[in-house]
Specification:
Layout (H helix, E strand, L loop, with lengths): L4 E5 L4 H12 L3 E6 L11 E5 L5 H15 L4 E4 L14 H29 L2 E6 L12 H21 L4 E6 L8 H11 L8 H17 L4 H13 L6 E2 L3 H12 L1 H14 L3
Parallel strand pairs: 1-2, 1-4, 2-3, 4-5, 5-6, 6-7
Helix pairs in contact: 1-7, 2-3, 3-4, 5-6, 8-9
Length: about 270
């Protein structure tokens, strides 16, 4: 039986790293892309490849070389992403463009390049790694949340267009995980602050709140890799996949009970002043 083939972006750390290992352990040929190739897991069925999702040239080379070597693709996991946190007034437009290029346009471009192959096969799965941030918001994450909301709509729209060819496009929405993601995001928030910024206090409070939330999270990168696998292999794919009911609930409250969500979030942040 032919091995199944998966392409994974952002494979050098966190959930992408764990997913690369998991798919390989379960017999898949894994074409794993990241800028830091040396950080990608190693294994007999893992093909570590250079990939910068903000570079069209890099995306085209990765996709061409992987398709040539694999002679097909079953699943694409658009996992590459990061959080360009900071006050919307103070995040530079250069950094805002970088955030959108990484979290949205990179996924869109690589998907466009694999779709002809999937269409010719009359089968394929696009798994887009969004976030519960695709349903909600908080201070400082404006541009990050914009990309995740957009990724959700983009994925849903794509699904309506490609399902006729036996291809599905689905979303995974992780919540808090035991990883360095939030630490990096809040470090970006501090770097984006201007000197004597009026937003320094809210950055400090939000950092403390997110640190507490992260410390209480029991979801690991390995846990999320299992969710990735479910989204990639589910015979009857859903539009959204979550690690926990709690993650699903937070997104639901943010969408349906907007005043309640904003009130609780504002209270939680302001309480740290007390």
């Amino acid at each position: 039986m032919a091995r199944r083939v998966v392409f994974i972006t952002g494979a050098s750390s966190g959930m992408g790293y764990a997913a690369t290992e998991l798919f390989a352990e379960r017999g898949w040929e894994v074409y794993a892309g990241a800028r830091r190739v040396e950080k990608i897991p190693t294994g007999d069925t893992i093909h570590a490849m250079s990939l910068d999702v903000t570079s069209s040239e890099s995306i085209k080379k990765f996709t061409h070389d992987a398709l040539e070597d694999a002679n097909g693709i079953d699943v694409l996991i658009n996992n590459a992403g990061y959080g360009e946190y900071g006050p919307l007034e103070e995040v530079s437009m250069e950094n805002a463009h970088k955030q959108v290029d990484t979290n949205l346009f990179g996924a869109a471009e690589i998907t466009k390049l694999v779709l002809p192959t999937m269409r010719s096969q009359q089968a394929g799965r696009i798994v887009n790694i969004s976030s519960i941030g695709g349903e909600m918001y908080s201070p400082l994450g404006g541009w990050y949340y914009v990309t995740k909301h957009a990724l959700n709509v983009w994925s849903d729209t794509l699904d309506t267009e490609v399902s006729q060819f036996g291809i599905r496009s689905v979303i995974v929405e992780p919540g808090g995980t035991q990883s360095s993601w939030m630490e990096i995001a809040m470090a970006n928030a501090k770097k984006n602050l201007k000197e004597d910024s009026p937003y320094a206090k809210i950055v400090d409070n939000t950092t403390r709140l997110f640190t507490r939330m992260g410390n209480s999270s029991n979801a690991t990168s390995d846990d999320l890799a299992e969710v990735f696998y479910k989204a990639a292999t589910d015979p009857k794919p859903k539009y959204r996949y979550y690690h926990s009911i709690g993650d699903h609930l937070v997104g639901h409250i943010a969408r349906v009970h907007q005043h309640l969500f904003k009130g609780v979030m504002t209270y939680a942040i302001n309480k740290l002043d007390k």
